[in-house]
Specification:
heterodimer; A: 235 residues; mainly alpha; B: 4-stranded antiparallel beta sheet; elongated
Amino acid sequence: MSGTAAVYQKEMATYFRSPIAYYVVAVFLLGSGYFFLYNIFLGGETAMAGTFQNMGILLLTLAPVISMRLLAAEYNAGTAELLLTLPLAPWQIVLGKFLGAVTILLLIIAGTLVDLIPLYLFGTPESTTILAGYIGFLLLGMACLAVGQLFSTLTHNQIVAALLSAAVLLGFWFVGHLQTFQASPGVRSLVAYLSFSLHFTDFIQGLVRSEGVVFYLVIAAISLTLSAGYLQWRR
Amino acid sequence: MSASAVISLESVSKRYGTRTVIHDLSFEVAKGEIVGFLGPNGAGKTTTMRMIAGFTAATAGRVMVAGRDMAIDNVEAAGLIGYLPERPPLYDTLDVSAYLRFVAKAKAIPRASRRREIERVASACHLEAVLDDEIFKLSKGYRQRLGLAQALLGDPQVLLLDEPTAGLDPGQIHETREVIRSIGAEHAVLLSTHILAEVTLICRRVAIINHGRLLAIDSPSGLQRAVEETNQVALQVTAEAAPLREALLAVDGVRSVDIRADSGLAGVLTVECHVDAHEGVEAAIARAVAGRWDLHRLERRQPTLENVFLRYVREAA
Protein backbone atom coordinates (compact mmCIF):
# COMPACT_ATOMS: atom_id res chain seq x y z
CA MET A 1 0.00 0.00 0.00
CA SER A 2 2.86 2.38 0.77
CA GLY A 3 4.01 1.96 -2.82
CA THR A 4 0.64 3.22 -4.04
CA ALA A 5 0.85 6.10 -1.56
CA ALA A 6 4.35 7.01 -2.80
CA VAL A 7 3.14 7.15 -6.40
CA TYR A 8 0.05 9.11 -5.36
CA GLN A 9 2.07 11.72 -3.47
CA LYS A 10 4.48 12.08 -6.37
CA GLU A 11 1.53 12.55 -8.73
CA MET A 12 -0.01 15.24 -6.56
CA ALA A 13 3.32 17.06 -6.25
CA THR A 14 3.79 17.05 -10.03
CA TYR A 15 0.19 18.12 -10.73
CA PHE A 16 0.53 21.28 -8.72
CA ARG A 17 3.96 22.19 -10.00
CA SER A 18 2.84 22.08 -13.62
CA PRO A 19 0.20 24.33 -15.16
CA ILE A 20 -1.95 21.51 -16.52
CA ALA A 21 -4.01 20.82 -13.39
CA TYR A 22 -4.71 24.52 -12.83
CA TYR A 23 -5.63 24.86 -16.47
CA VAL A 24 -8.06 21.94 -16.46
CA VAL A 25 -9.73 22.97 -13.21
CA ALA A 26 -10.02 26.57 -14.37
CA VAL A 27 -11.46 25.68 -17.78
CA PHE A 28 -13.91 23.28 -16.22
CA LEU A 29 -15.14 25.77 -13.63
CA LEU A 30 -15.44 28.54 -16.22
CA GLY A 31 -17.39 26.24 -18.54
CA SER A 32 -19.67 24.75 -15.90
CA GLY A 33 -20.18 28.18 -14.35
CA TYR A 34 -21.31 29.53 -17.70
CA PHE A 35 -23.73 26.66 -18.23
CA PHE A 36 -25.05 27.07 -14.71
CA LEU A 37 -25.74 30.79 -15.19
CA TYR A 38 -27.29 30.11 -18.58
CA ASN A 39 -29.58 27.35 -17.31
CA ILE A 40 -30.68 29.12 -14.15
CA PHE A 41 -30.95 32.75 -15.14
CA LEU A 42 -31.71 32.50 -18.82
CA GLY A 43 -33.34 29.09 -18.90
CA GLY A 44 -35.30 29.64 -15.72
CA GLU A 45 -34.34 26.22 -14.36
CA THR A 46 -34.38 25.79 -10.59
CA ALA A 47 -32.43 22.53 -10.39
CA MET A 48 -29.02 21.23 -11.41
CA ALA A 49 -30.17 18.72 -14.06
CA GLY A 50 -29.35 20.84 -17.12
CA THR A 51 -26.01 21.92 -15.64
CA PHE A 52 -25.07 18.32 -14.82
CA GLN A 53 -25.83 17.33 -18.42
CA ASN A 54 -23.46 20.06 -19.68
CA MET A 55 -20.85 19.16 -17.07
CA GLY A 56 -20.90 15.57 -18.30
CA ILE A 57 -20.04 16.59 -21.85
CA LEU A 58 -17.41 19.05 -20.60
CA LEU A 59 -15.87 16.26 -18.55
CA LEU A 60 -15.70 14.05 -21.62
CA THR A 61 -13.41 16.54 -23.32
CA LEU A 62 -11.36 17.53 -20.27
CA ALA A 63 -10.78 14.12 -18.66
CA PRO A 64 -8.43 13.10 -21.52
CA VAL A 65 -6.41 16.27 -20.82
CA ILE A 66 -5.94 15.16 -17.21
CA SER A 67 -5.18 11.55 -18.07
CA MET A 68 -3.03 11.99 -21.19
CA ARG A 69 0.17 12.58 -19.27
CA LEU A 70 -0.23 9.78 -16.73
CA LEU A 71 2.16 7.31 -18.35
CA ALA A 72 2.94 8.83 -21.74
CA ALA A 73 4.87 11.62 -20.03
CA GLU A 74 6.82 9.09 -17.99
CA TYR A 75 7.81 7.18 -21.12
CA ASN A 76 8.88 10.41 -22.76
CA ALA A 77 10.91 11.81 -19.89
CA GLY A 78 12.66 8.49 -19.32
CA THR A 79 11.24 8.36 -15.80
CA ALA A 80 9.32 5.19 -16.70
CA GLU A 81 12.70 3.49 -16.45
CA LEU A 82 12.81 4.50 -12.77
CA LEU A 83 9.15 3.90 -12.02
CA LEU A 84 9.16 0.40 -13.53
CA THR A 85 12.40 -0.65 -11.84
CA LEU A 86 11.47 0.52 -8.34
CA PRO A 87 10.02 -2.17 -6.08
CA LEU A 88 6.50 -1.26 -7.17
CA ALA A 89 4.00 -3.70 -8.63
CA PRO A 90 2.28 -2.50 -11.82
CA TRP A 91 -1.07 -2.28 -10.01
CA GLN A 92 0.47 0.05 -7.41
CA ILE A 93 1.71 2.39 -10.14
CA VAL A 94 -1.62 2.30 -11.96
CA LEU A 95 -3.69 2.80 -8.82
CA GLY A 96 -1.51 5.58 -7.40
CA LYS A 97 -1.75 7.48 -10.66
CA PHE A 98 -5.48 6.89 -10.99
CA LEU A 99 -6.15 8.14 -7.46
CA GLY A 100 -4.12 11.25 -8.26
CA ALA A 101 -6.30 11.96 -11.28
CA VAL A 102 -9.46 11.29 -9.26
CA THR A 103 -8.25 13.87 -6.74
CA ILE A 104 -8.23 16.49 -9.50
CA LEU A 105 -11.77 15.39 -10.32
CA LEU A 106 -12.77 15.89 -6.68
CA LEU A 107 -11.29 19.39 -6.79
CA ILE A 108 -13.43 20.13 -9.83
CA ILE A 109 -16.48 18.86 -7.96
CA ALA A 110 -15.58 20.99 -4.95
CA GLY A 111 -15.30 24.00 -7.23
CA THR A 112 -18.77 23.49 -8.70
CA LEU A 113 -20.34 23.41 -5.24
CA VAL A 114 -20.26 27.21 -5.40
CA ASP A 115 -23.13 26.92 -7.88
CA LEU A 116 -25.34 25.52 -5.13
CA ILE A 117 -25.19 28.71 -3.05
CA PRO A 118 -27.54 30.80 -5.21
CA LEU A 119 -29.65 27.70 -5.83
CA TYR A 120 -30.32 27.26 -2.12
CA LEU A 121 -30.51 31.03 -1.47
CA PHE A 122 -33.23 31.69 -3.97
CA GLY A 123 -35.02 28.37 -4.19
CA THR A 124 -35.65 25.01 -2.60
CA PRO A 125 -33.83 22.45 -4.74
CA GLU A 126 -34.11 18.75 -4.00
CA SER A 127 -30.91 17.85 -2.16
CA THR A 128 -31.12 14.13 -2.83
CA THR A 129 -31.41 14.72 -6.58
CA ILE A 130 -28.36 16.98 -6.51
CA LEU A 131 -26.43 14.45 -4.46
CA ALA A 132 -27.35 11.69 -6.92
CA GLY A 133 -26.16 13.93 -9.76
CA TYR A 134 -22.80 14.45 -8.07
CA ILE A 135 -22.42 10.72 -7.41
CA GLY A 136 -23.13 10.08 -11.08
CA PHE A 137 -20.66 12.79 -12.11
CA LEU A 138 -17.92 11.29 -9.91
CA LEU A 139 -18.53 7.79 -11.25
CA LEU A 140 -18.65 8.99 -14.85
CA GLY A 141 -15.40 10.89 -14.24
CA MET A 142 -13.70 7.84 -12.77
CA ALA A 143 -14.66 5.78 -15.80
CA CYS A 144 -13.43 8.51 -18.18
CA LEU A 145 -10.12 8.92 -16.34
CA ALA A 146 -9.50 5.17 -16.26
CA VAL A 147 -10.14 4.86 -20.01
CA GLY A 148 -7.86 7.86 -20.58
CA GLN A 149 -5.18 6.33 -18.40
CA LEU A 150 -5.32 3.13 -20.43
CA PHE A 151 -4.59 5.06 -23.64
CA SER A 152 -1.81 6.99 -21.91
CA THR A 153 -0.31 3.63 -20.92
CA LEU A 154 -0.41 2.39 -24.50
CA THR A 155 1.35 5.29 -26.21
CA HIS A 156 4.38 7.55 -25.72
CA ASN A 157 2.56 10.45 -27.29
CA GLN A 158 0.36 12.51 -24.97
CA ILE A 159 -1.59 14.06 -27.85
CA VAL A 160 -2.35 10.65 -29.34
CA ALA A 161 -3.44 9.45 -25.90
CA ALA A 162 -5.77 12.43 -25.47
CA LEU A 163 -7.29 12.15 -28.95
CA LEU A 164 -7.86 8.41 -28.75
CA SER A 165 -9.43 8.59 -25.32
CA ALA A 166 -11.64 11.54 -26.32
CA ALA A 167 -12.79 9.57 -29.39
CA VAL A 168 -13.58 6.46 -27.35
CA LEU A 169 -15.33 8.44 -24.61
CA LEU A 170 -17.48 10.29 -27.14
CA GLY A 171 -18.31 6.91 -28.66
CA PHE A 172 -19.45 5.64 -25.26
CA TRP A 173 -21.42 8.85 -24.74
CA PHE A 174 -23.36 8.69 -27.98
CA VAL A 175 -23.62 4.92 -28.44
CA GLY A 176 -27.11 4.99 -26.87
CA HIS A 177 -28.42 6.87 -29.89
CA LEU A 178 -27.86 3.75 -32.00
CA GLN A 179 -30.94 2.27 -30.30
CA THR A 180 -33.12 4.09 -32.79
CA PHE A 181 -31.59 2.22 -35.71
CA GLN A 182 -31.59 -1.26 -34.18
CA ALA A 183 -34.44 -3.65 -34.80
CA SER A 184 -33.20 -6.43 -32.54
CA PRO A 185 -34.16 -5.84 -28.90
CA GLY A 186 -30.97 -7.57 -27.72
CA VAL A 187 -28.73 -5.11 -29.55
CA ARG A 188 -30.95 -2.23 -28.42
CA SER A 189 -30.54 -3.07 -24.77
CA LEU A 190 -26.81 -3.68 -25.24
CA VAL A 191 -26.14 -0.25 -26.76
CA ALA A 192 -28.34 1.31 -24.07
CA TYR A 193 -26.34 -0.49 -21.40
CA LEU A 194 -23.02 0.68 -22.84
CA SER A 195 -24.13 4.30 -23.03
CA PHE A 196 -22.27 6.66 -20.68
CA SER A 197 -24.98 9.29 -21.15
CA LEU A 198 -28.05 7.12 -20.49
CA HIS A 199 -26.67 5.91 -17.14
CA PHE A 200 -25.68 9.48 -16.33
CA THR A 201 -29.21 10.72 -17.08
CA ASP A 202 -30.54 8.32 -14.43
CA PHE A 203 -28.26 9.88 -11.83
CA ILE A 204 -29.16 13.43 -12.88
CA GLN A 205 -32.82 12.61 -12.39
CA GLY A 206 -32.05 11.47 -8.88
CA LEU A 207 -31.94 7.73 -9.54
CA VAL A 208 -28.87 6.03 -8.06
CA ARG A 209 -29.35 2.62 -9.64
CA SER A 210 -26.94 -0.18 -8.82
CA GLU A 211 -26.84 -0.97 -12.53
CA GLY A 212 -25.32 2.45 -13.25
CA VAL A 213 -22.93 2.35 -10.30
CA VAL A 214 -21.69 -1.09 -11.28
CA PHE A 215 -21.42 -0.10 -14.94
CA TYR A 216 -19.06 2.84 -14.36
CA LEU A 217 -17.00 0.98 -11.76
CA VAL A 218 -16.62 -2.04 -14.05
CA ILE A 219 -15.50 0.17 -16.95
CA ALA A 220 -12.92 1.78 -14.64
CA ALA A 221 -11.77 -1.55 -13.23
CA ILE A 222 -11.38 -3.14 -16.67
CA SER A 223 -9.38 -0.15 -17.95
CA LEU A 224 -7.09 -0.09 -14.91
CA THR A 225 -6.56 -3.85 -15.05
CA LEU A 226 -5.66 -3.64 -18.73
CA SER A 227 -3.21 -0.80 -17.94
CA ALA A 228 -1.49 -2.83 -15.23
CA GLY A 229 -1.47 -5.89 -17.47
CA TYR A 230 0.12 -3.89 -20.27
CA LEU A 231 2.85 -2.57 -17.98
CA GLN A 232 3.68 -6.14 -17.02
CA TRP A 233 3.48 -7.44 -20.57
CA ARG A 234 5.49 -4.68 -22.28
CA ARG A 235 8.69 -5.80 -20.59
CA MET B 1 25.94 -19.90 -11.34
CA SER B 2 28.68 -19.69 -8.75
CA ALA B 3 27.74 -19.21 -5.11
CA SER B 4 29.14 -15.70 -4.78
CA ALA B 5 27.51 -14.31 -7.91
CA VAL B 6 25.00 -11.56 -7.15
CA ILE B 7 24.27 -10.76 -10.78
CA SER B 8 24.28 -13.63 -13.19
CA LEU B 9 23.35 -13.78 -16.85
CA GLU B 10 22.93 -17.22 -18.36
CA SER B 11 22.80 -17.36 -22.18
CA VAL B 12 20.69 -14.24 -22.33
CA SER B 13 19.29 -13.05 -25.66
CA LYS B 14 17.03 -10.13 -26.47
CA ARG B 15 15.10 -9.74 -29.69
CA TYR B 16 12.97 -6.80 -30.78
CA GLY B 17 10.79 -8.19 -33.56
CA THR B 18 13.22 -9.88 -35.91
CA ARG B 19 16.22 -7.85 -34.75
CA THR B 20 18.45 -9.57 -32.21
CA VAL B 21 20.27 -7.02 -30.09
CA ILE B 22 21.80 -9.35 -27.49
CA HIS B 23 23.22 -12.73 -28.48
CA ASP B 24 23.71 -15.48 -25.93
CA LEU B 25 25.31 -13.29 -23.27
CA SER B 26 26.67 -14.87 -20.08
CA PHE B 27 28.63 -13.34 -17.23
CA GLU B 28 28.53 -12.86 -13.48
CA VAL B 29 29.24 -10.14 -10.98
CA ALA B 30 30.09 -11.09 -7.39
CA LYS B 31 29.70 -9.16 -4.17
CA GLY B 32 32.54 -6.72 -3.54
CA GLU B 33 33.31 -6.46 -7.22
CA ILE B 34 33.09 -3.60 -9.67
CA VAL B 35 32.75 -4.96 -13.17
CA GLY B 36 33.16 -2.66 -16.11
CA PHE B 37 30.86 -3.13 -19.04
CA LEU B 38 32.69 -1.74 -21.98
CA GLY B 39 31.41 -1.27 -25.48
CA PRO B 40 30.85 1.39 -28.12
CA ASN B 41 27.48 3.12 -28.43
CA GLY B 42 24.89 0.66 -29.72
CA ALA B 43 26.76 -2.40 -28.48
CA GLY B 44 23.88 -3.52 -26.27
CA LYS B 45 25.09 -2.17 -22.92
CA THR B 46 21.90 -0.29 -22.13
CA THR B 47 19.65 -3.19 -23.19
CA THR B 48 21.63 -5.52 -20.93
CA MET B 49 21.41 -3.08 -18.03
CA ARG B 50 17.67 -2.81 -18.56
CA MET B 51 17.27 -6.57 -18.47
CA ILE B 52 19.20 -6.82 -15.21
CA ALA B 53 17.18 -3.94 -13.74
CA GLY B 54 13.94 -5.66 -14.77
CA PHE B 55 12.81 -2.87 -17.09
CA THR B 56 12.74 -5.28 -20.01
CA ALA B 57 12.64 -9.04 -19.96
CA ALA B 58 15.10 -11.32 -21.76
CA THR B 59 13.72 -13.13 -24.81
CA ALA B 60 15.76 -16.21 -23.97
CA GLY B 61 18.09 -17.23 -21.17
CA ARG B 62 17.96 -16.28 -17.51
CA VAL B 63 18.86 -13.12 -15.61
CA MET B 64 19.34 -13.73 -11.88
CA VAL B 65 19.82 -11.02 -9.26
CA ALA B 66 20.60 -12.15 -5.71
CA GLY B 67 19.15 -15.55 -6.50
CA ARG B 68 15.91 -14.20 -7.95
CA ASP B 69 14.82 -14.77 -11.50
CA MET B 70 14.15 -11.35 -13.04
CA ALA B 71 11.55 -12.85 -15.39
CA ILE B 72 9.35 -13.79 -12.40
CA ASP B 73 10.41 -12.00 -9.23
CA ASN B 74 11.39 -8.66 -10.70
CA VAL B 75 9.32 -6.53 -8.31
CA GLU B 76 10.72 -8.29 -5.26
CA ALA B 77 14.27 -8.16 -6.61
CA ALA B 78 13.90 -4.47 -7.51
CA GLY B 79 14.31 -3.62 -3.84
CA LEU B 80 17.85 -4.98 -3.99
CA ILE B 81 18.86 -3.03 -7.09
CA GLY B 82 19.92 0.58 -7.49
CA TYR B 83 19.73 1.61 -11.12
CA LEU B 84 21.03 4.70 -12.82
CA PRO B 85 19.75 4.59 -16.42
CA GLU B 86 21.65 6.19 -19.26
CA ARG B 87 19.34 9.21 -19.09
CA PRO B 88 18.90 10.17 -15.43
CA PRO B 89 15.20 9.51 -14.69
CA LEU B 90 14.25 12.81 -13.08
CA TYR B 91 10.90 14.55 -12.60
CA ASP B 92 11.72 18.05 -13.77
CA THR B 93 8.95 19.82 -11.88
CA LEU B 94 9.81 18.34 -8.48
CA ASP B 95 12.52 19.76 -6.28
CA VAL B 96 15.49 17.62 -5.42
CA SER B 97 14.43 16.67 -1.89
CA ALA B 98 10.85 15.84 -2.95
CA TYR B 99 12.26 13.60 -5.68
CA LEU B 100 14.52 11.77 -3.25
CA ARG B 101 11.64 11.43 -0.78
CA PHE B 102 9.51 9.82 -3.49
CA VAL B 103 12.21 7.31 -4.43
CA ALA B 104 12.95 6.56 -0.75
CA LYS B 105 9.29 5.90 -0.07
CA ALA B 106 8.85 3.79 -3.19
CA LYS B 107 11.87 1.76 -2.08
CA ALA B 108 10.02 1.17 1.21
CA ILE B 109 12.76 2.73 3.32
CA PRO B 110 11.20 3.01 6.81
CA ARG B 111 9.96 6.48 7.66
CA ALA B 112 12.31 6.72 10.68
CA SER B 113 15.48 6.36 8.62
CA ARG B 114 14.27 8.02 5.40
CA ARG B 115 15.56 11.48 6.24
CA ARG B 116 18.97 10.20 7.36
CA GLU B 117 19.24 8.08 4.23
CA ILE B 118 18.45 11.05 1.97
CA GLU B 119 21.09 13.12 3.76
CA ARG B 120 23.60 10.31 3.33
CA VAL B 121 23.18 10.01 -0.46
CA ALA B 122 22.93 13.77 -0.91
CA SER B 123 26.24 14.19 0.83
CA ALA B 124 27.89 11.29 -1.03
CA CYS B 125 26.85 12.87 -4.34
CA HIS B 126 27.50 16.49 -3.24
CA LEU B 127 23.90 17.61 -3.64
CA GLU B 128 23.51 19.53 -0.36
CA ALA B 129 23.55 22.89 -2.12
CA VAL B 130 20.64 22.11 -4.44
CA LEU B 131 18.25 20.14 -2.20
CA ASP B 132 15.57 22.85 -2.44
CA ASP B 133 16.04 23.56 -6.14
CA GLU B 134 13.62 22.42 -8.80
CA ILE B 135 15.15 19.70 -10.92
CA PHE B 136 14.67 21.47 -14.25
CA LYS B 137 17.04 24.19 -13.03
CA LEU B 138 19.90 21.77 -12.38
CA SER B 139 23.04 21.63 -14.51
CA LYS B 140 23.87 18.43 -16.35
CA GLY B 141 26.43 17.47 -13.73
CA TYR B 142 23.92 17.85 -10.91
CA ARG B 143 21.29 15.90 -12.87
CA GLN B 144 23.73 13.03 -13.34
CA ARG B 145 24.65 13.03 -9.65
CA LEU B 146 21.01 13.19 -8.58
CA GLY B 147 20.42 10.14 -10.76
CA LEU B 148 23.27 8.41 -8.94
CA ALA B 149 21.96 9.52 -5.52
CA GLN B 150 18.56 8.03 -6.33
CA ALA B 151 20.23 4.70 -7.17
CA LEU B 152 22.19 4.71 -3.90
CA LEU B 153 19.09 5.25 -1.73
CA GLY B 154 18.43 2.29 0.52
CA ASP B 155 21.97 0.97 0.10
CA PRO B 156 21.01 -1.74 -2.42
CA GLN B 157 23.19 -4.85 -2.84
CA VAL B 158 23.38 -4.39 -6.57
CA LEU B 159 24.22 -1.20 -8.41
CA LEU B 160 23.71 -0.83 -12.14
CA LEU B 161 25.27 2.36 -13.43
CA ASP B 162 24.80 3.17 -17.10
CA GLU B 163 27.52 5.65 -18.01
CA PRO B 164 27.58 7.34 -14.61
CA THR B 165 30.21 9.93 -15.50
CA ALA B 166 28.63 11.11 -18.76
CA GLY B 167 28.22 14.87 -18.76
CA LEU B 168 30.44 15.51 -15.75
CA ASP B 169 33.49 17.76 -15.72
CA PRO B 170 36.88 16.25 -14.83
CA GLY B 171 36.65 17.17 -11.14
CA GLN B 172 33.19 15.68 -10.83
CA ILE B 173 34.27 12.58 -12.74
CA HIS B 174 37.01 12.05 -10.19
CA GLU B 175 34.60 12.48 -7.27
CA THR B 176 31.99 10.19 -8.81
CA ARG B 177 34.61 7.50 -9.38
CA GLU B 178 35.63 7.76 -5.74
CA VAL B 179 31.99 7.32 -4.68
CA ILE B 180 31.66 4.25 -6.90
CA ARG B 181 34.96 2.84 -5.70
CA SER B 182 33.91 3.18 -2.07
CA ILE B 183 30.60 1.42 -2.79
CA GLY B 184 32.32 -1.34 -4.70
CA ALA B 185 33.89 -2.91 -1.61
CA GLU B 186 30.55 -4.07 -0.20
CA HIS B 187 28.29 -4.30 -3.24
CA ALA B 188 28.07 -5.83 -6.67
CA VAL B 189 28.52 -3.02 -9.17
CA LEU B 190 28.09 -3.19 -12.92
CA LEU B 191 29.23 -0.01 -14.59
CA SER B 192 28.82 0.56 -18.28
CA THR B 193 30.98 2.98 -20.15
CA HIS B 194 32.61 3.64 -23.46
CA ILE B 195 35.57 5.31 -21.81
CA LEU B 196 38.58 3.03 -21.62
CA ALA B 197 40.28 4.90 -18.79
CA GLU B 198 37.24 4.56 -16.59
CA VAL B 199 37.32 0.77 -16.45
CA THR B 200 41.06 0.50 -16.10
CA LEU B 201 40.89 2.88 -13.12
CA ILE B 202 38.14 1.41 -10.97
CA CYS B 203 37.07 -2.01 -12.20
CA ARG B 204 38.35 -5.39 -11.15
CA ARG B 205 37.14 -7.08 -14.30
CA VAL B 206 35.95 -5.84 -17.65
CA ALA B 207 33.26 -7.41 -19.81
CA ILE B 208 33.78 -6.30 -23.38
CA ILE B 209 30.74 -6.28 -25.58
CA ASN B 210 30.18 -5.36 -29.22
CA HIS B 211 27.16 -5.88 -31.49
CA GLY B 212 25.36 -7.57 -28.63
CA ARG B 213 28.00 -10.25 -28.17
CA LEU B 214 30.43 -10.72 -25.34
CA LEU B 215 33.91 -10.56 -26.83
CA ALA B 216 35.92 -11.17 -23.71
CA ILE B 217 36.06 -10.85 -19.98
CA ASP B 218 39.45 -9.51 -19.09
CA SER B 219 41.31 -7.86 -16.26
CA PRO B 220 42.06 -4.16 -16.55
CA SER B 221 45.73 -5.03 -17.04
CA GLY B 222 44.84 -7.38 -19.89
CA LEU B 223 42.81 -4.60 -21.40
CA GLN B 224 45.71 -2.23 -20.89
CA ARG B 225 47.96 -4.61 -22.84
CA ALA B 226 45.38 -4.81 -25.59
CA VAL B 227 45.28 -1.05 -25.68
CA GLU B 228 49.03 -0.82 -25.97
CA GLU B 229 49.06 -3.31 -28.78
CA THR B 230 46.75 -1.15 -30.82
CA ASN B 231 49.03 1.84 -31.04
CA GLN B 232 48.98 3.58 -34.35
CA VAL B 233 51.16 6.05 -36.18
CA ALA B 234 49.56 7.97 -39.04
CA LEU B 235 51.59 9.68 -41.79
CA GLN B 236 51.11 11.72 -44.91
CA VAL B 237 53.89 11.24 -47.44
CA THR B 238 54.53 12.03 -51.12
CA ALA B 239 55.89 8.70 -52.30
CA GLU B 240 55.39 5.53 -54.34
CA ALA B 241 53.32 3.01 -52.40
CA ALA B 242 55.43 -0.14 -52.85
CA PRO B 243 58.87 1.10 -51.76
CA LEU B 244 57.29 3.10 -48.93
CA ARG B 245 55.60 -0.01 -47.59
CA GLU B 246 58.86 -1.90 -47.76
CA ALA B 247 60.74 0.82 -45.94
CA LEU B 248 58.11 1.10 -43.20
CA LEU B 249 57.91 -2.63 -42.57
CA ALA B 250 61.69 -2.67 -42.20
CA VAL B 251 61.42 -0.35 -39.20
CA ASP B 252 61.68 -2.18 -35.90
CA GLY B 253 58.32 -2.11 -34.09
CA VAL B 254 56.06 -1.67 -37.11
CA ARG B 255 53.61 -4.56 -37.30
CA SER B 256 51.50 -3.73 -40.31
CA VAL B 257 51.04 -0.92 -42.79
CA ASP B 258 47.92 0.34 -44.49
CA ILE B 259 48.43 2.72 -47.42
CA ARG B 260 45.74 4.75 -49.20
CA ALA B 261 46.01 7.47 -51.80
CA ASP B 262 45.04 10.86 -50.40
CA SER B 263 41.93 11.96 -52.23
CA GLY B 264 42.74 15.66 -51.94
CA LEU B 265 46.32 15.84 -53.12
CA ALA B 266 47.90 14.11 -56.11
CA GLY B 267 50.81 11.84 -55.23
CA VAL B 268 50.24 12.13 -51.48
CA LEU B 269 49.66 8.91 -49.59
CA THR B 270 47.90 8.49 -46.26
CA VAL B 271 49.51 5.74 -44.23
CA GLU B 272 48.48 4.04 -41.02
CA CYS B 273 51.04 1.88 -39.24
CA HIS B 274 50.15 -0.47 -36.41
CA VAL B 275 53.10 -0.31 -34.09
CA ASP B 276 54.39 -1.74 -30.83
CA ALA B 277 53.92 0.30 -27.73
CA HIS B 278 57.59 0.99 -27.03
CA GLU B 279 59.01 4.46 -27.15
CA GLY B 280 60.68 5.89 -30.20
CA VAL B 281 58.81 4.02 -32.90
CA GLU B 282 57.52 7.21 -34.45
CA ALA B 283 61.03 8.69 -34.45
CA ALA B 284 62.35 5.61 -36.26
CA ILE B 285 59.54 5.87 -38.79
CA ALA B 286 60.26 9.53 -39.30
CA ARG B 287 63.95 8.78 -39.95
CA ALA B 288 63.15 6.01 -42.40
CA VAL B 289 60.72 8.14 -44.40
CA ALA B 290 62.10 11.66 -44.25
CA GLY B 291 65.46 10.70 -45.83
CA ARG B 292 63.87 9.53 -49.08
CA TRP B 293 60.44 11.17 -49.42
CA ASP B 294 58.55 14.33 -48.47
CA LEU B 295 56.96 13.73 -45.07
CA HIS B 296 54.04 16.13 -44.55
CA ARG B 297 52.59 14.92 -41.28
CA LEU B 298 53.31 12.31 -38.65
CA GLU B 299 51.07 11.64 -35.67
CA ARG B 300 50.96 9.13 -32.87
CA ARG B 301 47.33 8.12 -32.45
CA GLN B 302 45.76 7.34 -29.10
CA PRO B 303 44.23 3.89 -29.21
CA THR B 304 40.52 4.06 -29.83
CA LEU B 305 37.92 1.74 -28.45
CA GLU B 306 37.15 0.50 -31.97
CA ASN B 307 40.75 -0.61 -32.45
CA VAL B 308 40.80 -2.36 -29.12
CA PHE B 309 37.62 -4.15 -30.11
CA LEU B 310 39.09 -5.20 -33.44
CA ARG B 311 41.91 -6.80 -31.57
CA TYR B 312 39.52 -8.77 -29.33
CA VAL B 313 37.45 -9.72 -32.37
CA ARG B 314 40.54 -11.05 -34.14
CA GLU B 315 41.50 -12.94 -31.03
CA ALA B 316 38.05 -14.49 -30.77
CA ALA B 317 38.07 -15.59 -34.42
